Amino acid sequence: MMKNAFNINEYIDGILSSNITYVSKAITLVESTKHEHQEQAQQIINAIIKHSGSSFRLGITGVPGVGKSTFIESFGLEVINRGHKLAVLAIDPSSQLSKGSILGDKTRMEQLSIHPKAFIRPSPSSGSLGGVARKTKESIIICEAAGYDYVFIETVGVGQSETAVHQLTDFFLLLMLAGAGDELQGIKRGIMEMADGMVITKADGTNTDKAKMARGEYARALHLFPPTESNWIPEVLTCSSTENKGIKEVYDMIDKYKRHTIANHFFETKRANQTKQWLHQTINDTLIERFYANPIIKEEILKIEKQLEQNLINPYQAAMDLFKKMT
Amino acid sequence: MMKNAFNINEYIDGILSSNITYVSKAITLVESTKHEHQEQAQQIINAIIKHSGSSFRLGITGVPGVGKSTFIESFGLEVINRGHKLAVLAIDPSSQLSKGSILGDKTRMEQLSIHPKAFIRPSPSSGSLGGVARKTKESIIICEAAGYDYVFIETVGVGQSETAVHQLTDFFLLLMLAGAGDELQGIKRGIMEMADGMVITKADGTNTDKAKMARGEYARALHLFPPTESNWIPEVLTCSSTENKGIKEVYDMIDKYKRHTIANHFFETKRANQTKQWLHQTINDTLIERFYANPIIKEEILKIEKQLEQNLINPYQAAMDLFKKMT
Q: Which one of A13, A27, A130, B91 is CB 3.0 to 4.6 Å from A285, fit for a cystine?
């Protein structure tokens, strides 16, 4: 599938000199499930990690139909116009079927996808949530080492990946439609409270007033939430990606957040906590994965779950008995 | 400390015949950290578990000062007047200091604490979150087997225990003050989205209008949230525990929820999921606890965290190396 034409040092030099071919192929190594590719990937990551960390990491989420790709197209160009280099990573572990649509997205980002200062990459949509999050994290490291100082991580907002993305990013941006009704929004509960900012998309034409009203309502709602740890009150904006209205304001909001959290040291604290959580999450996931991989455990668990359904056993006791059997 | 005057069968018979002395002493066994007490507790739980599950489990949370104990006093009496037997379990793992205040609460529940149809019990405020949750779960089983068909689980709303309580209950009720300002509310982010209902307390005297306004605001805000899995739109009410106003309405709201979720089978599905999650949570917690209890791991983790701070290593790689060292 992939030519192993490069050795590790070529990868490292290629990434550090911003060669897009090496960046792209290194991410392919990260995403590969082959053992030898994983080993190479880890060697590369270990060598470049000290050059990472200097980008602003922006999580962008919203349901299908909210206009994520057109938003990323126009907002991405704004970010580049302000002097940045931009990498866009799209992850969607919830569905393998959407692979096509992500590639579709890429072609819809007409200007961005061919811009020399932009790098767009659909991330693996298969594998465990932890696995996808890890690969995304390592892809971020590669992009940063290659000099991309703005990284977007795009998710669909209907799965569990948002919590993982929240863990990986500095700012979590939620895209919403005006007046679509609760059901149509389809955003998972709990995601709204993670947002550092919200943008009502498609605020153009006959939709403009509705978007303004929605903005007011969401702003009031977010204000009722308890304050965030960063002491930042999430803002709500409207924008039209097609008319390129409100896009500058989104940049300014995020920039204001950045200055606010750097000034109060929340930025560095959050990054440090994310790294620690990342370590412990990996440890915990691995422990659990290995435990359940045992075929005896798998069989016993099925038996226990049957007994639980009939209210015959105490779940705590059942778990303890399982451990006794294992040792 | 505790006389082991009873044998297991005496406990079981005592609980099943609603003898409050046995209920109370059995919970003390559950809460004890002594190995022999734990073994006795597990034998009791295993014997009575088939008699549990028939109560309505209500989580009640709110910051100190919101008036939880006066609310529980008047709402508890309402529940009893509607023909139920009520057990109140108060947990607060976040602070050992508050032991005194929980006992203080109990004396503030003047009528409830001496009512023959009520059982009030402050739960252990020490130990790990998982441990506290487990003890609470087992205390619920004891109360249910003793015929209490309404169980309140009270928490403080500022810690992590709310997620655990959410896992243990059928309905999650959030008490809020009107116009206290975001800062004063002190509720942890994410708790609002867990609420199945909200009650603005102290809606009396000069505070009445403010409470009504707050009710409207919160109702609008909750409506903007994505719908809950149960298809229930959380309601917001006001009440005055001292003037005994709005208390009946809280009962009716919860009863409506109960009928709604029984009719659409969400009630039983949620219970079944909670039991399964309880099993897996216990397994996962135990795996993690045992891993970190290893002194070599403790030492290695400290080293790794230092290297992470300097951005020298990849957290994923560090975790994997740790596992290699262990095997």
A: A130
